[in-house]
Amino acid sequence: TPVAVEPLQGGGTISGTVTLDGVPPPVETYTPNKDAEVCGAEERTAEDILLGPEQGIKNVVVSITNLSKSIALDRSIAGMMDQKGCLFTPHIVQVAAGAPMTFL
Question: Number of structural domains, the chain?
Answer without folding.
Answer: 1
